Predict the structure of NADH-ubiquinone oxidoreductase.
Amino acid sequence: MKVLVLGGYGLIGEAVLGRLIEDGHDLVGLGRDVREAQRRKPGAEWIAADMSRLLAAADWAPLLAGVEAVVNAAGALQDGPRDHLDAIHRRSVAALVTACEQVGVHRLVQVSAIGADLDSDNAFFRTKAEGDRAVASSSLEWTILRPGLVIAPGAYGGTALLRALAAFPWFVPAVLADRPIQTVSVADVAEAVSRAVGGRLAHGQIIDLVEERARPLGAVLLEFRAWLGLPKAPVVAVPAIVGRLAGSIADGLGLLGWRSPLRSAAIAALEKGVTGNSEPWAEINGRPAQALEATLAAMPAHVQERWFARLWLLKPIVFAVLSVFWIFSGIVGLVRQDAAADILISRGLPATLAFVMVLAGSIADIVVGAAVVVRPLARSALMAMIAITLLYLAAATALAPNLWLDPLGAIVKAVPMLCLVLVALAILEER
């Protein structure tokens, strides 16, 4: 069949899309930015579209031409500049359902979430449940799958955070370490979708996809630490208030375009635990969903996994240090403008030009220091930092080469700072 997968390059969507290609279906993937997806999955057709803007059946109709089944694996954790939960989870899904009924797409698989509840005070779970209701009240051959904590070879968001915390030196920090968690392999999710799309699963079901046994979050982290091949370390319970504070900070970063998994919605969800009923899927599948130990064993960790886990925690520190360094440097230049200009004047530059250069340099430092913490501007800011630093070094070499031998290393220290910018560029990508 021709199958449309919404969110086809996400953690779940990519695995689903790959499995359906193996099953022999013709795949169409949909997402906001599909350039990288086209490289990773060239066997699928890709459509660049934002679900939060597809809010009427007429918006969906052209995208459903020739499609026989739809898998909705799209979603967002919390409202932000790019993400609007009500639009993505409820309004767009309702419009999709109507469009499917109108154009004759009969089969729809909705990948929801454990904990979806119409009465939830958590916007993520409430809007997910509202989307599920739109699907379940339709005339389509529908299936709703609710996976627990999904574990996959790729990692971003919550699964990246698990790896990072597990790689923490000396001990493993955990907020709400005692909360029960049931994981599920992304392969099991893809298997369930495959069965639903292929008609090998009775439609009209809501199925939890979770391993049999729930375990505390702290135990999940220790499994990840062992998987990474790191020495044993104790789990240290972090007070819940620290998690809430981190969530508030992450919410603020969300307004700047960063999609941290530590946002307050995730902390609130974790407080309730991530658990479901494993028995229905075990009966359908003939065996329970794969346990965490087997999931991890199926994707052995190598050195790149340890690099990723350690660098993931360092990433916010790297960007914070760069931002503070450049902003502070610019402020010092403004406060001590006369002293900075005197250095240039002593090297033969006209006073007016010297003051203009100091002022321009100080403003440039402050601008790039502020821009680097705004996600859409971060790459441009880092490139500007490289250009400005090279310009500083070239000017210092031309005007005052003796500064390279300054006992306090004022010029020499720009070189490791430049290296830190290169590191920031290397780890900037999130997906």
Q: What stands out?
A: The chain is about 55% helix and 15% strand. The longest helix spans residues 303-335. The chain has two domains: 2-301, 315-426. The CA atoms of residues 7 and 74 lie 4 Å apart.
